[in-house]
Specification:
It contains 18 helices and no strands. Helix 2 runs parallel beside helix 5 and helix 5 packs parallel to helix 7. It has helices spanning about 1-50, 55-70, 70-100, 100-110, 115-140, 145-170, 175-195, 205-210, 215-245, 245-260, 265-280, 285-310, 315-320, 330-355, 360-410, 420-435, 445-470, 470-480. The relative contact order is 0.11. With about 475 residues, it is mainly α. The chain starts with a helix and ends with a helix. The protein folds into 2 domains: about 1-225, no CATH class; about 280-483, no CATH class.
C-alpha cells in the first residue's frame, strides 16, 4: 500500500501530463495524426521488443535477488553486466531501424514515405533502451523514491518541450516529440542511477555473457512474450487501418490509452514494488500466497471505484481527454474497462510465473493468450466495429483470469485464501450492475442510480481496506510523515 501511494501519486501526475498531451494532440493533429504517431511508436516498440531481449524485466529479478542477499559485490557485477548488455541490444535495435526503414514504412503505412521518419525514431529506441535499463536498476534495488522522481521529471519536462512543437509544426512535430520524450526519460534516469555510486567492475565480453546467461535466458523468453504482445497489437492496428482507415487506428489508440494508462494506474503503481518483492520470495509458496493475496485484494478494492466512476461519466471524460469527435470510442472503452476487474486478479497471479523464472510456461501462455486476443479482436472489429473491440477485450480478460488461475494452481499449488472470492464477487456485481445501468434511457434516473453505485463501491472498498490494513491510520501516518 505504501508503494501504491507513492507511485499512485506519481501516476496521477503522469496521467495529468498525459491528459494535457493527449488533449493538445487531439486538437492540433486530430485522429489521423494520432494514427500516424501510434503506428510510428508501435513499430519502434516492436523493434525494441525484438532486440532488447527482455533485460528491463529479467534484470529486476537478478538485481533484487543479489540485493536481497546483501551481497554488494554480486549486486555491482550484476548491474555492470546489465549496462554492457544493453549497449549491445540498443545498437542492434538502432541498426535494424536504420537499415530496414523503407520496409518498416511499407509494412506500417503501405508506402515508403515514412522511411526517414523511422530512421530518426531509431534515436528514440536508443534512449528508450538505455532509460529502461536504468529504471530496472532503481527498481531492482527498490530505490522507489528515485524511481518515482525519474519518472515524474522525465515526463513533465518532455511535455513542456513537446507541446510548443505540436502547436507550431502540427503533424511534422510527431517524430521530434517522440525522440525528445525518450531523451528526457534517459537524462533523468541517468541522473538518479549516477547518484547510487555503483562500483564499476571491469568485465570482458566473455564474462559479460557468462555472468549474464541467466538474465539473458529469462530475458529472451520475456522479450519473446513482449514481442508477441506488441506484434499482435501491431497486427490489430494494421488490420483496423486496412479495413477502417488510419482515423480508426487513431480512435483505437485513444481508447487503448485510456484502458492502459488512465485505468492502468493501479497496475503501474503496484507492479513497480510488487515484482522485485515477489522475486525475492519466489521459492517460498506460503509467502507467495500471502503476497499475491494482498496484492490482488488491494488491486480489486482500489480499481472498482475507478471503473464505476468511469462507466458513469464515460462520455464526459472522453470529451475532456480528447474532443467530441472521439465520442465514438465510448462503448469500446466501457466494455474494455469492465474487463479490468478480472485483469487486476490475473495480473497479480501472473507475476508468479515470471518471479519463478518459469520461462517455458511463460512463453507458452504468451503465445496462447495473444493468439486468442488477436482472433477475438479481429472478430470483434469485423462484426461490431470499435464497440466489438471493447467486447472482445472484456471476453479476453475473463478467459485470461480463468486460465491463469488454473495454471498457477496446478503448476505451483497457488490458491487464494477463502476470504478473497466473496469480496471479488461483490465487486463484480457492482461493476456489472453499473454497466447495465448505463443503458437506461432516462438520463436523470440513469445518473442518479450510477452515482449511488459510486458511493456504495467507495464505501465498501474503504470499509474493507480499513478492516484489512487500517486505512484510516495508514493515511494519517502518511500525512504526518509528509508534514
Amino acid at each position: 500500500m505504501k508503494a501504491t501511494s507513492l507511485f499512485g501519486g506519481v501516476q496521477v501526475f503522469n496521467i495529468l501530463i498525459s491528459l494535457v498531451r493527449s488533449k493538445f494532440i487531439a486538437l492540433l493533429i486530430g485522429p489521423t495524426g494520432m494514427g500516424i504517431a501510434g503506428l510510428l511508436s508501435s513499430t519502434m516498440g516492436l523493434v525494441n521488443g525484438l532486440t532488447n531481449i527482455g533485460l528491463e524485466s529479467s534484470s529486476v529479478k537478478e538485481i533484487s535477488l543479489a540485493n536481497n542477499d546483501s551481497n554488494l559485490e554480486k549486486t555491482s557485477r550484476t548491474i555492470n553486466v546489465l549496462k554492457r548488455l544493453v549497449w549491445y541490444t540498443a545498437t542492434l535495435g538502432v541498426f535494424i531501424m536504420i537499415v530496414f526503414a523503407p520496409q518498416l514504412s511499407d509494412f506500417a503505412f503501405g508506402n515508403k514515405e515514412y522511411a526517414s521518419s523511422f530512421r530518426w525514431v531509431s534515436l528514440a529506441l536508443l534512449f528508450k533502451q538505455l532509460s529502461s535499463s536504468q529504471l530496472a536498476i532503481l527498481q531492482g534495488l527498490r530505490k522507489l523514491q528515485s524511481l518515482a522522481k525519474a519518472n515524474l521529471l522525465g515526463n513533465f519536462i518532455g511535455l513542456i518541450i513537446t507541446l510548443p512543437l505540436y502547436y507550431f509544426f502540427r503533424i511534422d512535430a510527431i517524430v521530434p516529440a517522440i525522440i525528445i520524450a525518450t531523451f528526457m526519460s534517459f537524462i533523468f534516469t541517468l541522473y538518479y542511477t549516477k547518484k547510487l555510486n555503483i562500483k564499476k567492475v571491469k568485465l570482458s565480453t566473455k564474462e559479460v555473457f557468462k555472468e549474464g546467461n541467466e538474465m539473458i535466458h529469462l530475458g529472451f523468453m520475456l522479450s519473446l512474450s513482449s514481442m508477441i504482445t506488441l506484434f499482435v497489437a501491431y497486427l490489430i492496428q494494421i488490420y483496423i487501418s486496412k479495413v477502417g482507415g488510419i482515423q480508426e487506428v487513431g480512435f483505437y489508440n485513444a481508447g487503448f490509452l485510456i484502458l492502459n494508462t488512465y485505468v492502468g494506474i493501479i497496475f503501474n503503481a503496484m507492479g513497480t514494488d510488487y515484482f522485485p518483492r515477489l522475486s525475492a520470495i519466489s521459492e517460498q509458496i506460503l509467502k507467495i500466497r500471502k503476497a499475491v493475496y494482498e496484492q490482488a485484494l488491494i488491486a480489486v478494492l482500489l480499481i472498482t471505484p475507478i471503473i464505476i466512476i468511469f462507466l458513469t461519466f464515460a462520455s464526459i471524460i472522453i470529451s475532456i481527454l480528447y474532443t467530441k469527435e472521439f465520442s465514438t470510442i465510448e462503448k469500446m472503452v466501457s466494455w474494455g474497462i469492465l474487463g479490468m476487474l478480472f485483469k487486476a486478479v490475473s495480473w497479480s497471479m501472473g507475476y508468479v510465473i515470471i518471479a519463478k523464472g518459469d520461462s517455458k510456461v511463460f512463453i507458452k501462455t504468451a503465445i496462447g493468450f495473444n493468439t486468442i486476443l488477436l482472433l477475438l479482436n479481429i472478430l470483434g472489429y469485423n462484426y461490431g466495429g470499435l464497440e466489438g473491440l471493447g467486447i472482445s477485450f472484456f471476453v479476453y480478460y475473463i478467459i485470461h483470469f480463468i486460465s491463469i488461475k488454473l495454471i498457477t494452481y496446478y503448476r505451483y499449488n497457488f490458491y487464494f485464501e477463502k476470504g478473497f472470492y466473496p469480496i471479488f464477487s461483490v465487486m463484480v456485481v457492482l461493476c456489472v450492475s453499473t454497466f447495465l445501468l448505463s443503458y437506461l434511457p432516462n438520463t436523470i434516473v440513469r445518473y442518479s442510480l450510477m452515482i449511488i453505485m459510486i458511493l456504495v463501491s467507495t464505501i465498501y472498498s474503504y470499509h474493507q481496506l480499513n478492516k484489512k490494513i487500517g486505512i484510516k491510520e495508514f493515511v494519517k501516518n502518511l500525512f504526518n510523515k509528509k508534514k
